[in-house]
Amino acid sequence: MAQLRLKHTQLEQAGGRVVLVGMGTPEESAAFVKKLALPFPLISDPERRLYQAYDLRMVSSLELFAPSLVVKAVTAMARGYTIGMPIGNIRQLPGVFIIDTYGGIVFSHIAKDAADHPDTEAILAVLNTLR
To answer: What is the pTM of this model?
Structure first.
């Protein structure tokens, strides 16, 4: 999410609009947006219906604490990124989708683990091909 916030202006200039989906209640989502001063809206989805609709998988308890994920978390914290108190099911993996103006998915990145996020430059490249 930090990458999206840092590249927010570039994403908008390329014709994109970032919309987040979170598992918190509407009140928790609003507090999250305020706390992190997010420049984009957040859809509250405590029942995880959108996660299911986009076939985003959930990891097992063993996968959640895999050594490779722990290394990624420590590396992120060393770079100054903090991990807040999770809301919702911590086993739910994220995804990133670019949906065109006709409702078609033109880019998708389904996370393999909780730290698997696409490079923002790849997202920008896709957006630039849509213009």
So the answer is: 0.78
Phi, psi of 55 (to 5 degrees): 55, 40
Residues 71-86, buried b or exposed e (16+ Cβ, 10 A)? eeeeeeeeeeeeeeee
Rounded to an integer, what distance in angstroms lies between the CA atom of residue 100 and that of residue 97? Answer: 10
Taking the C-alpha atoms of residue 116 and residue 52, their distance in angstroms, rounded to an integer, is 18
8-state DSSP, 124: H
For 71-90, how does the pLDDT look when each residue is reduced to its tens digit (9 = 90+)?
766 777 777 766 566 778 88
CB count, 10 Å around CB of 45?
18
